[in-house]
Write a structure and sequence with these properties.
Regulator of G-protein Signalling 4, domain 1; 10 helices; disordered N terminus; 181 residues; mainly alpha
Length: 181
């Protein structure tokens, strides 16, 4: 564990700097955060409303993971937390699926489906998510004819994993506790 500033190993210093950087992202201007959290988006426009949340909104995030994820600032905070734990693949996958479901063009949908599969689902993918064999098989079959429900089962499984595991740790994290203040 990282203790004592004088004898900190390089890995502890790097981790501390990483956490500080991720927290710094939350304090940046809303348009910078927006660019940071939506890597799969086709949208060129910036959101009109600020991403900062009131203390009351931040406290409401405790009610459910869905409530947190529907708030842009909450999503950014949760993503920063997962990055600090080196487990951001689940939120990245969830975000990619949300963007995918909003895609109207069948050609773009097919391209995005292929990219999501390569990035998150196939064996040894760069950000491989942890889903069971059955879920992978269903998703692979769905890829034959991409639709808005292609990744539905996998996305539900990942959401459930985040809800049971990461979300409770997030609510106890320094990142969330700082946002309440």
């Amino acid at each position: 564990m990282c203790k004592g500033l004088a004898a900190l190993p390089a890995t502890c210093l790097e981790r501390a700097k990483g956490i500080k950087t991720k927290l710094g992202i939350l304090l940046q201007k809303p348009e910078i955060i927006s660019d940071y959290i939506i890597p799969y988006s086709d949208k060129a426009e910036k959101p009109a409303k600020p991403l900062r949340s009131s203390q009351a909104e931040v406290l409401q995030w405790r009610e459910s993971l869905e409530k947190l994820l529907m708030n842009s600032y909450g999503l950014a905070a949760f993503k920063a937390f997962l990055q600090s734990e080196h487990s951001e693949e689940n939120i990245e996958f969830w975000m990619a699926c949300e963007d995918y479901k909003a895609t109207k063009s069948p050609i773009k949908m097919a391209l995005k489906a292929k990219k999501i599969f390569e990035d998150f689902i196939e064996k040894d993918a760069p950000q491989e998510i942890n889903v069971d064999h059955y879920t992978k098989e269903v998703t692979i079959k769905n890829l034959a004819e991409p639709s808005t429900s292609t990744f539905e089962l996998a996305q539900k499984k990942v959401l459930s994993l985040m809800e049971k595991d990461s979300f409770s740790r997030f609510l106890k994290s320094e990142i969330y506790l700082e946002l309440i203040k």
